[in-house]
């Protein structure tokens, strides 16, 4: 039986994975509607790939370890760190983002722990299903990370040297 058939025929799996799809859609809107429109300053160009790594690290735990012993505690700790870490840009966002982008970020901040909670439930209650799903999430996030590093850091898209200097001075 294909994994896609299993997911689509299981309401519990669908409920746990729906926030992942919603978060992915919101991230795409954030990246291509907002980040590309305004460009990213130095802080965000480096910070967003780190956000992706902090999130990716969480999914490594259910992908690699069974739900027992210290593994759930490690997962919960990494998830908590990631949820706090992704808020680091809010000082920059307060200066650079419009109301719609702020609302989108608020939705992303709400979705972040819900995604982790859903994966944690899957890991605890459907361990055979969570491993390929976690690896799929890791693969997607690795692609996003590579894109962020290539586009924003290596190619330097969205560089605003004068605006970066002004933000760092304030």
What does this structure look like?
With 170 residues, the protein is mostly helical. The protein has one domain. 84% of the residues lie in helices and 0% in strands. The protein is built from 8 helices and no strands. Helix 3 packs antiparallel against helix 4 (71-85). It is elongated, with a radius of gyration of 17 Å.
| Average pLDDT number | 87
Provide the number of structural domains: 1
Strand content: under 5%
- Inertia-based shape: elongated
What kind of oligomer do you see?
A: single chain
What helical percentage do the residues reach?
Answer: over 70%
Helix/strand-derived category reads: mainly alpha
Gist?
The chain has 170 residues and is mostly helical. The protein is 84% helix and 0% strand.
Topology diagram in text:
Elements: H1 3-8, H2 11-38, H3 42-64, H4 71-85, H5 90-96, H6 99-125, H7 127-154, H8 161-169
Helix pairs in contact: 2-6, 3-4, 3-7, 4-6, 6-7
Defining traits:
84% helix, mainly alpha, single chain
